[in-house]
Amino acid sequence: MRSKLHVTGVLAALAILPFAAAAASFNYLYIEAGEGNSSGGHTAIQFGDEIYHYQHVDSGLIRLFRLEKNEFHFIYRYLQNRPMHVSRIEVTDDTFGLLKDQFKWQFLTQERQFKLLDDLHKERIFIRHLLQKSTAGQAIIDADAASVLRLKGVGLFYPEPGHRPQLTDSNLAKQQSLSVQSLRQKVEQRYGPDFLLRRRAMIEAQIKALAPSHWPAIDSGPAGGKFPASIYSFTERYSDYLTALFAIKALMDAPPLQADALLLTNRPAFKISEAESRVLRELRNDLETRLVKAADSNRPDWGYAVLVDMARYIAIDASLQSGYWFFIDDFAENSERLRPEQYLEHGARIRTLIGDARAALNQVRLSAASRQRLGEAEYSQIEMSANRYIELLNSEQQHDFRYNGEKALPSKSIGFPEGPVPNLTREQLTTALSALDNIENSLFETLQQSYRYDLFSRNCVTELFRSIDRALLKPYRSADKLADLDALTIKESEQRLGGYVDIPYNFIPFISYQSVLERYHVTQSRDLDSYRGLELAKLTAGQDHLVTALTESNVISSRLYEYNPDDALFVFFTDDNVPMRPVFGLVNTGAGIGQSVYGLFSWPLDSGKNLKSGATGILMSLPELFFFNMRKGSYKYLSFNQLTDADLQED
């Protein structure tokens, strides 16, 4: 009897072992075709709450992006209205770690590589700027230089070079100046009355002594084992020094904030409670202490930190004195701006967004009021929430407003002004510029070779599987020689994933998804509907199916869709009506042709927008003639709160 129990126990343990070893899983995502990005379909890979996907960018390259799960679903399933199909692949913890680490490594490596390219571009523009100045005595500020050579944070207190200051209310300006004077006194008490003058002289001397950076050879291979080095460039050093000079100038001159840097609030909803006053007073004291320390800091960006803290100190001081919240404008300068004609037809959705923004602001304010102290991260949340809410309120007066772009730190910038410049000869600048041209061209060519986009051989699908293959070979990289990489890749894929997906034959998103289902160890597959599909199911459940189908078959009578100018003109939805798809597609093609013809005449007025939209409409509608759906309509003004948790809980 004891022997039988022992055998039974061993067999049970052996039965459990495979499941214990294969405790982890990742998801392969297939997103159906649509009019937006990756119009022919899209793929992604998910590890926990992180989703990685490759995207074709304007430079003609393909780049790896990382998004949080809810944000990814909201963009593709809701805003772009595209159904998603998810397959869960069970693997060992070891395999899961290899795959996740590989994608994280590639993402961070690529981010660094493209930052180096941006830094090289900025460096070249700056040296060209200095060369023009040394030749003609005055630099020619072209559009490229004006957009690239910027001093972050300085625009909070000073106008763009050549522009007049934006004046604020005189009483408010006086109050702000007194706040800055109080900060300056604290700095001088700590470091001495001549500290700011000494610090300014030291920075001016450092600027004079600046020399162009030495740029070493940059390893930009996509799968290299060496992480690209970070370089504190000549332009970054100059920008940091110049920003520091402006921080010192602001402390010495005590100017008020620029009028567009401060958001005034006098609505009852922004009245400060006693609990909020308490934490704001503590935060004001903390900002004062931090600013005084930063004024003597050795960190490169101390000038920007001082400007931001000074601006927030002013806003908090004004809030406490008035009893109503004041906030610094934290929108990015390239934020999307909407005109009334773009959003007026979507009034109900905009009102929902306003309600969500108000609720989000109230929530973070309540959380802040319950704390003993308010940290920078918590205050940034309040500032961002308030910025979004205040900006959305502009729609009630039918004004232009910024739709997105809130940032954790205010970054209002100005272009490089006339000021101290490095003591460099024309020969030094010419030599440095020539070297930079060669390095930038070399890096760009290398990145083109590594990340060049190709519709068939290098797209969002092929690069995903190449990354998987690299991960599976990672344990063998220390070996002296690998005889047959292809055979080893196939063997590893079969052992770890259950099968192998051949890249050249699976470059189409839909086909790759079918291959994953057939070859990988898929334990669960789920079809997740688009936003319109989810809403259509709700309507159908509560009304006559035929009436709903007829009403929602077209954009004219639909209650679920309001025309979005970002979509090319169409008449019929074809994603949920396969038998009628060619007929509806013919009508949609006609609508695209009509918009194109109209676009020929409206070209001088809309810069070709209607012509381009019409051409896009034709391209999106032609596949419908052959029963293939691409056009689905999009929903620009949806609330993130409409994202349902039901379809996300098991991902």
Describe this structure in words.
- This protein has 20 helices and twelve strands.
- By secondary structure, the chain is α+β, with helices and mostly antiparallel strands.
- It has three domains: 24-112 and 449-528, no CATH class; 124-426, no CATH class; 541-642, no CATH class.
- The strands form four sheets. The chain has a six-stranded antiparallel β-sheet, with helices on both faces. The chain has a two-stranded antiparallel sheet with strand order 6-11.
- Helix 5 (170-191) crosses helix 9.
Unreliably modeled segments = 1-22
Tally of contiguous helical segments: 20
Percentage of residues in strands: 5-15%
Distance between the termini: 46 Å
Strand order within the widest sheet? Answer: 4-3-2-1-5-12
The level of helicity is 40-55%
Radius of gyration: 29 Å
Number of beta strands: 12
Structural class: alpha+beta
Number of domains: 3
- Large-scale geometry: globular
Oligomer: single chain
Mean pLDDT: 89
Instruction: Please outline the major beta sheet.
Output: 6 strands, antiparallel
